[in-house]
């Protein structure tokens, strides 16, 4: 307990002054090697004191001393080298582009959390390094300060999926900073950590939850396999369908060979093997039973996925309103409902499951987003097209009604009436039996005439029919409504009007209005693509916290990779916010109390923006310490000037008082000389003194 208080006292002393004076005093009495030995000794004493109940563990004391040593190491290179753990880590060698690869897991060493993993027997310095993080904050006087702090144990439960989502989806504000949106998500991330901690106490749910990505992949693959079977074999009630038994066996052996080769190369081996097993099941069980089997597996797997989704996000503990507002949760429930309909209602419902590809692929999602993002502009342009169609329909109804003669293909009555069909077949059989030709030329001409009379009909007898005709045929034809109307003769009086009508519809509706709609969609998709490229470029070349670009760190002592990993690590800032919220207020240090006050007021000025301490350090103490020393000297100088000004004012008042006294004494002497109380010589002398 005494050592813990002593370590906290030394930490407080180091926080009170940021120059090297306190560091030199501490290191004068405590050598760097001795300090490191104390840290290791405190770590090793933990196992010896496990059976004894103590208020503060030895490792906690050692952690405080390690944090103190990290602060002292800024002023002592020997101590800085001694604190480096003896391990060969090639951190920072991977490019930051791996942070954007959605298929790589873990993301990269730069995105790697500094929160503790499973604690095993290891080097004490390495152990404390995993439990320690550092950030830079901005004080009220706009000076920067580096903070070394312990990572709270709850930060261990932050999932990699949440890190990836926050890192890739955090938006910039009007000033180009991501800090605002990131700070808004810290409360949600903190709640997720607490839920993940509770989830560890439920082993079964945790086992399903941490494999959520696997269940999602299985569901999509099963949906694809089911739809392949339906496409090739439906309807399957009468037999095997489009592929015979020999073809099934040949495909089975081909896919089996491909799966063996894929398993040896550890890539793309499971899909061919699954297809081979499905074909074998079709051969032995039949298509219907195979679909029932795959549909049941898909439904069970999707239910497991929903359980995993709920386990990861804690959806049920958020309340019914949060569940209803969670679009992703509702989407997965709709998927389960569709799978149920496909299994128990009709197989063709499985085709809807293929839309899951839009949910899984960002590119397809952007294609849909290109239509919905500017939906208002598209709807207004479409409304303009409807108005123009309405006007052209009115003109056609008033002046060109006779030109709306449409060719139609009516259904033959012989195919519509089953009794008539049977009678026709009997007639053909009787003709064949009697040797009479049933395809008489007269009969053929009669049928052709009847069909010719019914191949055309009027399509603009009412205004509603005109609107439907222009809307249906006019917008679907490349040349407009003129392509489907009657071809007029040049000798007709309304021929010029018809030419103007067709050209106006073509240029206004087809070329201008429809291309406006297509242009909005294409431009939106291009904007989404450019935004995605710009976003990826920003993630590669810009610090998430301060917003400084990569080229600012060229030819500096700290590289850009080291800066975003050590100085401005996004997750270290999250861990510090969590530490401030979890820690008792009475145990706050100076910086923690300052940041807690700023967080309470939703003030983000403590985040460093467009500045970093590594870019302003010039010597051993750094420019920050020099500025503080100059500020201290300026304050002391102002105090001296204020004191001298006060003394000068007092002296001035004394001189003024003495001058007034002398004036009063001279005036009295003059009056006394005038009354004869003094000799003339004395009076004259005093008068001279007064005059002088």
From TrEMBL:
Compartment(s) of residence: Membrane
Membrane topology: Multi-pass membrane protein
Chief location bin: membrane
Chain segments annotated as transmembrane: 212-234, 246-264, 285-309, 329-357, 378-400, 503-526
Signal peptide: none
UniProt domain Ion transport: residue ranges: 292-532
Keywords: Membrane, Receptor, Transmembrane, Transmembrane helix
Presence of the UniProt keyword Mitochondrion in the record: no
Protein name: Inositol 1,4,5-trisphosphate receptor type 3
Species, as recorded: Ilyodon furcidens
């Amino acid at each position: 307990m005494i050592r813990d208080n002593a370590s906290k006292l030394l930490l407080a002393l180091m926080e009170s002054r940021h120059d090297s004076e306190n560091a030199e005093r501490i290191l004068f009495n405590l050598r760097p090697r001795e300090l490191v030995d104390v840290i290791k000794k405190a770590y090793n004493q933990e196992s010896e004191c496990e059976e004894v109940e103590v208020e503060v563990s030895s490792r906690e004391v050692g952690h405080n001393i390690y944090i103190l040593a990290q602060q002292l190491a800024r002023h002592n290179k020997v101590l800085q080298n001694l604190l480096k753990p003896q391990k060969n880590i090639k951190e920072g060698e991977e490019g930051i582009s791996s942070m954007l690869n959605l298929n790589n897991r873990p993301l990269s060493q730069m995105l790697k959390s500094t929160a503790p993993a499973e604690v095993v027997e290891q080097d004490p310095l390495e152990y404390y390094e995993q439990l320690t993080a550092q950030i830079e904050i901005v004080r009220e006087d706009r000076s920067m300060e580096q903070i070394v702090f312990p990572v709270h144990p709850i930060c261990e439960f932050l999932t990699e999926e949440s890190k990836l989502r926050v890192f890739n989806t955090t938006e910039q504000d009007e000033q180009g900073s991501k800090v605002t949106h990131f700070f808004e998500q810290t409360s949600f991330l903190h709640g997720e950590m607490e839920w993940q901690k509770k989830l560890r106490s439920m082993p079964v749910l945790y086992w399903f939850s941490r494999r959520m990505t696997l269940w999602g992949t299985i569901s999509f693959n099963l949906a694809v396999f089911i739809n392949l079977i339906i496409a090739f074999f439906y309807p399957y009630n009468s037999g095997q369908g489009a592929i015979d038994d020999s073809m099934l066996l040949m495909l089975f052996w081909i896919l089996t060979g491909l799966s063996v080769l894929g398993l040896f190369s550890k890539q793309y081996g499971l899909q061919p093997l699954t297809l081979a097993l499905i074909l074998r099941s079709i051969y032995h069980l039949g298509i219907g039973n195979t679909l029932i089997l795959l549909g049941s597996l898909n439904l069970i797997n999707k239910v497991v996925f929903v359980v995993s989704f709920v386990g990861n996000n804690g959806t049920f503990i958020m309340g019914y309103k949060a569940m209803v507002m969670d679009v992703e949760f509702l989407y997965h429930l709709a998927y389960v409902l569709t799978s149920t309909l496909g299994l128990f209602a009709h197989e063709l419902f499985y085709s809807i499951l293929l839309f899951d590809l839009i949910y899984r692929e960002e590119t397809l999602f952007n294609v849909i987003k290109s239509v919905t993002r500017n939906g208002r502009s598209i709807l207004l342009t479409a409304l303009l097209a409807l108005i123009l169609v309405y006007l052209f329909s009115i003109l056609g109804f008033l002046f060109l009604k006779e030109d709306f003669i449409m060719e139609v293909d009516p259904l033959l009555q012989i195919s519509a009436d089953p009794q008539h069909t049977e009678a026709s077949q009997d007639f053909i059989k009787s003709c064949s039996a009697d040797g009479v030709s049933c395809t008489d030329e007269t009969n053929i001409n009669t049928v052709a005439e009847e069909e010719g009379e019914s191949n055309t009909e009027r399509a603009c007898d009412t205004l509603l029919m005109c609107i439907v005709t222009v809307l249906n045929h006019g917008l679907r034809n490349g040349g407009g409504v003129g392509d489907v109307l009657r071809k007029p003769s040049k000798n007709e009086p309304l021929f010029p009007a018809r030419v103007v009508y067709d050209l106006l519809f073509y240029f206004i509706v087809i070329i201008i209005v429809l291309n406006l709609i297509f242009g909005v969609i294409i431009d939106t998709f291009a904007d989404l693509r450019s935004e995605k490229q710009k976003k990826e470029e920003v993630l590669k070349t810009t610090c998430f916290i301060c917003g400084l670009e990569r080229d600012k760190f060229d030819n500096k002592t700290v590289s850009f990779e080291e800066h975003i990993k050590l100085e401005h690590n996004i997750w270290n800032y999250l861990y510090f916010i969590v530490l401030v919220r979890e820690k008792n207020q009475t145990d706050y240090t100076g910086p923690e109390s300052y940041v807690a006050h700023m967080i309470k007021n939703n003030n983000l000025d403590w985040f460093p923006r467009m500045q970093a301490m590594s870019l302003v350090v010039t010597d051993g103490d750094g420019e920050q310490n020099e500025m503080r020393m100059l500020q201290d000297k300026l304050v002391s100088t102002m105090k001296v000037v204020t004191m001298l000004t006060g003394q000068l004012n007092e002296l001035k008042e004394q001189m003024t008082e003495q001058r007034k006294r002398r004036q009063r004494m001279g005036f009295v002497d003059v009056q006394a000389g005038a009354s004869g109380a003094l000799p003339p010589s004395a009076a004259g002398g005093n008068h001279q003194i007064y005059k002088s």
